[in-house]
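Extended Data, panel c. Modelled sequence:
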Amino acid sequence: MSFFKNRTVIGVICIVLSLLICFAVTPLFNQSISQKTEIVRVTKPIKIGEAITKDMVQTVEVGGYNLPEDVVRQMDTVIGKFASADLAPGDYIIASKIADAPAAENAYLYNLTGEKQAISVSVKSFAAGLSGKLISGDIVSIVAPDYKKQGVTVIPPELQYVEVIAVTADTGYDANQQNIKSNSSTEQEDVDEKELPATVTLLVTPEQSKILAELEADGTLHVSLVYRGSKENAAKFTEVQDSVLSQLYPEETESQESEDQSQPETPVEPPVESGAE
């Protein structure tokens, strides 16, 4: 104890410790901070579900200290992947923000094959959109009041069985795929968190999309639920609708071929020689 009571000894110990910190610990700390590494950084805004292309990102050299462990360091890791969150220019890309497939709320847009297309129509009122009960996969009929200004309410034959592929709120997010707060304690809180639909996105042919666009412009459109269930049974309804469309809008080539086949050949009469009796 008398040893530590000596002020000179204590002073020497403090000096040794300070020198150790200055010339040993601090350089090692500075070296770890100044160590550089390459990472992938965003150069253009990327929306959730969007495919990442080469012009959207770049490789930059930054300090390696305190970087997330899952930060992406190679361009090949992100090119061709899909953003699972909105990314802004300057953001680092971490593994949790990219996915091999598009985000669930946009996946249906990447399944289009070119034969059919997606079109959204506005839900003008709570009742017009089935009181917010529509979900992806539903088969619906489109009811058109005062169709083509004829004073009658009809279900156009082109829109008798149409598949719903999304129901979207006015925030731009799919209303039937919104995550309700997991810590909600009552059913009323769950209802408060649910967003009401603003648009319904349908899977249609070009001919159907034209009619829907006209109904959207007129502001007269109601959605009537026909079927909700398995994909196999839903496909039976869309097959019936496709059959009706093929009859209403036959392809020009098929129409021309059928016309050629239906017309009998006219026999050619031999020319009559002049002066013949």
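DSSP finds six helices and nine strands in the chain. This feature is highlighted in the accompanying rendering.
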